[in-house]
C-alpha cells in the first residue's frame, strides 16, 4: 500500500515537471513547427535563477518567481534574434538551436563554474498522508504544476489572447487576414513556453542536480511527451506526460535509470508506430 | 474608394498580374470575370497583402497600402473572403465572428456588429456550433459575416458560390449588393457563376493573363454572344 502510494506520488512529481517542460515544447514544436533543441536550456536557466537568488541570500520563492521571468526573457531574445528568421527552414532551426543550446551551457559554466549547484527547498520535512509519508516540497511542486496547468487552460480558452493564439495556430494566413499580428502572437507564444519551462526548472531545482547540462535530459523527455501525446492539445500533453512520467517512475524502481530511459524510448517508438499522431492525435485540429 | 494602379505581382519570380488598373467606389459591386488561371484569385491576394506586389499602387480613400503587411491592410479596412472561405474550423461560430472584430479594434469598433445577424440570421442560431461542422453555404455566410465584423470599407469576395447549394447562392446574390449599399462598402466580386455575377454587380471587368481586357455593364454581358466572345468560352 505504502509502496504503491509513494510510487504514484513520485510519478506525479515527474509528470508535473514533464507537463510544464512539455507545454513549451508543445507550443513551439507541436504548433509552430519549430524544433527548438535549446528548449532544455530554459529549464536549466530556471534552476540556475533559483540557485543564483538563493546564493545572494534571497528566498526560494522569490527565485521561483524570477525563474519564469528570466526564462521568458531569454526565450524572447532567442525568438527575436534567431528563430523568427528560420520559421520556414526547419533544418536550419535545428542546427541553430543546437548551437545556441551549447553556447548557453558553456556560458553558464563560465559564469558559475564547474560542479553541481546546491538549491535548498523552501520547506523541509514530510507530510503524513495516512497511506504514506511524503516530502512536503514535492507535494507543493505537484500543486503548483496543477495550478499552472489550470491557468494555462483558462488563458487559452477564456481570454482574447488565447483566442488569437488558437486562430493563428489553425490558419496563419487567414489570421493575418482578420487583422491579427501573427508575428507578434508567435513571439509571445514562444516566450510564454520558455517561461513555463523556466518555472519547471525552478521547481525541480531542489530535487535535481543543478548543472549547466541538466536541460538535455528534460529536452529528450519532453520530446517523448509531445510526440507520444500528440501535438496540439492540452489533453494530449497530459496523456503524454502520464505515459512517459508514469512508465519512467515505475521502471526506475526495477532497473537502472539509463536502462529505464531506453525502455521508455522504445515504448514511445512503439506508440508512435501504432498511432502516428500520438495517443490523442488530431484532437485539436 | 479603392484605387488600384499598375498593379503587378504573383508567386515569387513568376509574375501573374501585369499592370491592373481598377477603381471601386463605396457602395458599388464590381464583378471580376475570367477563365480559370486568369489571375483573379492572385489579384485579390495581392490586394489583401497575402502576396507581394512587384509594382503599382493600392490606395484606400487616399491612404497608400502597398507596403503594409496583410494584418495592417485588414486593420485599414480591407476584408478578404478567400477562395475556400478560410473558416477557423475548430472555433465556434461566435469565436470566428469575434476574431473577425480584431481588424476593427484599433478603429474603435467594439464587438460583433448587430447587422451581421440581420444579414445572416443562421449565424445567431448557430453561435455555439463548431464552425467546421457547418454546411458549405453556412460557412460562406459565416466567412462574409466574419469579414463584416472588421467593419471594413472594402470587401474582396473570391467565388462565394463555390460548392454551395443553389438556394443559398441565390440568397448570397441578393445580400451582396444590399450589404454594399447599406454599409457603403466597395465590393470586388470574383465569380465563375455568371448568373450570380451579373445579378450582383454594378459593373463587370474581364481579366485575362493578368490584365483587365474589357469592361461592361451586366446588361451588356447578359447578351450571350458578347459574353461568349469576351470570355472566349
Ligand atoms: N501557389 C501558386 N504558386 C505558383 N503559381 C500559382 C499558384 N497559384 C496559382 N498560380 C498560377 O497563377 C495563375 C493565376 O492563378 P489564379 O489562382 O489567380 O487564377 P484564377 O483566375 O483565380 O483561377 P480559378 O478560376 O481557377 O480560381 C495560374 O497560372 C496559376 O497556375
Ligand atoms: Mg481563383
TrEMBL record, chain A:
UniProt keyword Phosphoprotein present: no
Cellular component, GO annotation: plasma membrane
Any one GO BP annotation for this protein: amino acid transport
Keywords linked to the UniProt accession: Amino-acid transport, Cell membrane, Membrane, Transmembrane, Transmembrane helix, Transport
Regions crossing the membrane: 12-31, 60-83, 95-116, 136-156, 186-211, 223-247, 259-276
Membrane topology: Multi-pass membrane protein
Intracellular or extracellular location(s): Cell membrane
Keyword Transmembrane helix attributed: yes
InterPro entries registered for this protein in UniProt: ABC_transp_permease, ABC_UrtB_bac, BCAA_transport_permease
Stated name of the protein: Urea ABC transporter permease subunit UrtB
Gene name as annotated: urtB
UniProtKB/TrEMBL annotation, chain B:
Organism: Pseudaminobacter soli
UniProt-recorded name of the protein: ABC transporter ATP-binding protein
Family: Belongs to the ABC transporter superfamily.
GO terms (BP aspect): L-amino acid transport
Family matches, as InterPro entries: AAA+_ATPase (IPR003593), ABC_transporter-like_ATP-bd (IPR003439), BCAA_Transport_ATP-bd_LivF (IPR052156), P-loop_NTPase (IPR027417)
PANTHER family in alphabetical order: HIGH-AFFINITY BRANCHED-CHAIN AMINO ACID TRANSPORT ATP-BINDING PROTEIN, HIGH-AFFINITY BRANCHED-CHAIN AMINO ACID TRANSPORT ATP-BINDING PROTEIN LIVF
Keyword Nucleotide-binding: yes
Domain ABC transporter: 2-233
SMART domains, A to Z: AAA
Keyword vocabulary terms for this entry: Amino-acid transport, ATP-binding, Nucleotide-binding, Transport
Gene Ontology MF terms: ATP binding; ATP hydrolysis activity; branched-chain amino acid transmembrane transporter activity
Keyword set includes Ligase: no
Upper classification of the organism: Bacteria, Pseudomonadati, Pseudomonadota, Alphaproteobacteria, Hyphomicrobiales
Amino acid at each position: 500500500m505504502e509502496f504503491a502510494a509513494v510510487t504514484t506520488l513520485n510519478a506525479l512529481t515527474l509528470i508535473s515537471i514533464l507537463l510544464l517542460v512539455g507545454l513549451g515544447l508543445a507550443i513551439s514544436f507541436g504548433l509552430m513547427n519549430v524544433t527548438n533543441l535549446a528548449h532544455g536550456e530554459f529549464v536549466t536557466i530556471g534552476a540556475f535563477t533559483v540557485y543564483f537568488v538563493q546564493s545572494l541570500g534571497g528566498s526560494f520563492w522569490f527565485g521561483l518567481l524570477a525563474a519564469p521571468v528570466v526564462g521568458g526573457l531569454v526565450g524572447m531574445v532567442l525568438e527575436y534574434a534567431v528563430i523568427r528568421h528560420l520559421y520556414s527552414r526547419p533544418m536550419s532551426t535545428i542546427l541553430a538551436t543546437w548551437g545556441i543550446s551549447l553556447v548557453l551551457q558553456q556560458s553558464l559554466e563560465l559564469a558559475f563554474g564547474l560542479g553541481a549547484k546546491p538549491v535548498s527547498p523552501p520547506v523541509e520535512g514530510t507530510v503524513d498522508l495516512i497511506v504514506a509519508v511524503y516530502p512536503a516540497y514535492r507535494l507543493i511542486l505537484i500543486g503548483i504544476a496543477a495550478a499552472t496547468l489550470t491557468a494555462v487552460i483558462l488563458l487559452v480558452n477564456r481570454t482574447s489572447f488565447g483566442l488569437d493564439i488558437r486562430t493563428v495556430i489553425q490558419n496563419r494566413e487567414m489570421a493575418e487576414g482578420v487583422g491579427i499580428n501573427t508575428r507578434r502572437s508567435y513571439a509571445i507564444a514562444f516566450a510564454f513556453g520558455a517561461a513555463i519551462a523556466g518555472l519547471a526548472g525552478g521547481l525541480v531545482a531542489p530535487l535535481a542536480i543543478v548543472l549547466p547540462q541538466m536541460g538535455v535530459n528534460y529536452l529528450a523527455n519532453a520530446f517523448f511527451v509531445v510526440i507520444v501525446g500528440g501535438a496540439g492539445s492540452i489533453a494530449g500533453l497530459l496523456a503524454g506526460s502520464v505515459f512517459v512520467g508514469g512508465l519512467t517512475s515505475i521502471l526506475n524502481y526495477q532497473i537502472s535509470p539509463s536502462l529505464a530511459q531506453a525502455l521508455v524510448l522504445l515504448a514511445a517508438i512503439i506508440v508512435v508506430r501504432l498511432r502516428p499522431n500520438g495517443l490523442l492525435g488530431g484532437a485539436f485540429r | 474608394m479603392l484605387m488600384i494602379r499598375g498593379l503587378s505581382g504573383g508567386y515569387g519570380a513568376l509574375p501573374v498580374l501585369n499592370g491592373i488598373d481598377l477603381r471601386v467606389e463605396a457602395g458599388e459591386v464590381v464583378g471580376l470575370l475570367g477563365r480559370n488561371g486568369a489571375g483573379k484569385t492572385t489579384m485579390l491576394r495581392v490586394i489583401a497583402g497575402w502576396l507581394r506586389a512587384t509594382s503599382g499602387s493600392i490606395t484606400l480613400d487616399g491612404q497608400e497600402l502597398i507596403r503594409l503587411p496583410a494584418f495592417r491592410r485588414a486593420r485599414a479596412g480591407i476584408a478578404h473572403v478567400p477562395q475556400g472561405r478560410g473558416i477557423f474550423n475548430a472555433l465556434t461560430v461566435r469565436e470566428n465572428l469575434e476574431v473577425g472584430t480584431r481588424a476593427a479594434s484599433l478603429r474603435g469598433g467594439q464587438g460583433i456588429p448587430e447587422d451581421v445577424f440581420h444579414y445572416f440570421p443562421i449565424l445567431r442560431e448557430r453561435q455555439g456550433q463548431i464552425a467546421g461542422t457547418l454546411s458549405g453555404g453556412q460557412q460562406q455566410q459565416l466567412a462574409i459575416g466574419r469579414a463584416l465584423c472588421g467593419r471594413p470599407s472594402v470587401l474582396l469576395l473570391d467565388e462565394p458560390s463555390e460548392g454551395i447549394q443553389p438556394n443559398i447562392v441565390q440568397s448570397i446574390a441578393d445580400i451582396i449588393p444590399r450589404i454594399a449599399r447599406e454599409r457603403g462598402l466597395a465590393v470586388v466580386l470574383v465569380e465563375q457563376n455568371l448568373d450570380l455575377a451579373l445579378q450582383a454587380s454594378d459593373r463587370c471587368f474581364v481579366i485575362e493573363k493578368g490584365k483587365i481586357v474589357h469592361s461592361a455593364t451586366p446588361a451588356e454581358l447578359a447578351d450571350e454572344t458578347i459574353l461568349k466572345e469576351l470570355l472566349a468560352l
